[in-house]
Amino acid sequence: MHKKMYNFDQQITRRGTNSVKWDETDGNDIIPMWVADMDFLAAPAIQKALEERVKHGVFGYTIVTNSYYEAIISWFSRRHQWQIENDWIIYTTGVVPAISAVIHALAMPGEKVLIQSPAYNCFFSSIKNQGCEVVEAPLKREGDSYVMDWDDFEAKCSDEKTTLFLLCNPHNPSGRVWTKDELAKINDICLRHNVIVISDEIHCELIMPDYTFTPFAAVNEACQNNSITLNSPTKNFNIAGLQIANIICKNPTWRRRVNRVVNIFEICDVNPFGPIALEAAYNESEDWLDELNIYLNNNYLALKDFFKTEMPQLEVLKLEGTYLVWVDIKRLGIKSKILAKRLLAEGHVFINSGTLYSKDFGEGYLRINIATPRATMLEGLRRMAKVVKAL
């Protein structure tokens, strides 16, 4: 039996802290289950490391030291059997700025960037902002999950104007954790058509029991040579406000180009707290993370039970990774955006419409963030059920 060391049921008041999640909406009675951050205290080791740094009292310009790179290399070797070299790592301030920088570095305006819809909403803007065209290769619904439509994916890759594929691994918003075989097949297709893979792996540590995360670049040598990985401890350890992420690229030519754009975009200034938090997360907080994943899985099971009894006409899709649950509302006969607006206005619960993740392939779905104390989650679901029952 797992011995609990951390209290994820603890209620933390986040209102009044300039929280995007809690302070961006009007009214003090809204339960936010939308944006992807968690309502849990950061791991004690992270808090302690930051407190020690604050005590110093001087917060000037900061460098990234060897201990930072060593923490990343050790973590991915130990936890994911992925051997990274120091030179491959480029420090940056966030995964989304990194996506834009990599696209800018490797694609010309007018070229096409492939994504799998429904897809993280920032993928669309990052591609368009670099003057490139978004091409959607929709995932195929199969039972309570999604699979890849290989024929469509290859057809889209075969377009000579398609130069990059932006992968989300694990996938937001569907909750899929791609298997090693799926990732290898993606790369085989991309290599055939000279398409470079950019793998956004920001949710990589949020994995439910019975599933295994595989870094794209760790699948085989071919995957490593044909990809750039973007990752960060921010989602996994609830430190998004510290603005820290890493671009990992073995190919020296691509790395030079990306590094130049990162500097031109000026997204490489070092926050004095970010590297300290990363080191405390990767070196001292693995037990916290493991316990978090158990708690999140239990939240998911509680959500499924709630839907079964209170909203049986809605279908909860399988959650393999992330803390973002994808819910099929098509049987209600109401548009996703309209339901989301009614949930906010009438139920005072903020849940994202699936159309945020693709106008065509997100319709009929909602995305629910369950990374909150169970009592808060259940209250949000009760509010949702009240609105649904009144339709």
TrEMBL record:
Cofactor: pyridoxal 5'-phosphate
EC number assigned by the record: 4.4.1.13
InterPro entries per the UniProt record, alphabetical: Aminotransferase_I/II_large, C-S_lyase_PatB-like, Class-II_PLP-Dep_Aminotrans, PyrdxlP-dep_Trfase, PyrdxlP-dep_Trfase_major, PyrdxlP-dep_Trfase_small
Gene3D superfamilies: Aspartate Aminotransferase, domain 1 (3.90.1150.10), Type I PLP-dependent aspartate aminotransferase-like (Major domain) (3.40.640.10)
Entries under Pfam families matching the protein: Aminotran_1_2
Keyword DNA-binding carried by entry: no
Keywords assigned: Lyase, Membrane, Pyridoxal phosphate, Transmembrane, Transmembrane helix
Enzyme class, spelled out: lyase
Membrane-spanning segments: 88-107
Molecular function in Gene Ontology: cysteine-S-conjugate beta-lyase activity; pyridoxal phosphate binding
Keyword Oxidoreductase: no
Domain spans labelled Aminotransferase class I/classII large: 40-381
NCBIfam families assigned: C_S_lyase_PatB (TIGR04350)
Similarity section: Belongs to the class-II pyridoxal-phosphate-dependent aminotransferase family. MalY/PatB cystathionine beta-lyase subfamily.
Protein name: cysteine-S-conjugate beta-lyase
Native organism: Prevotella bivia
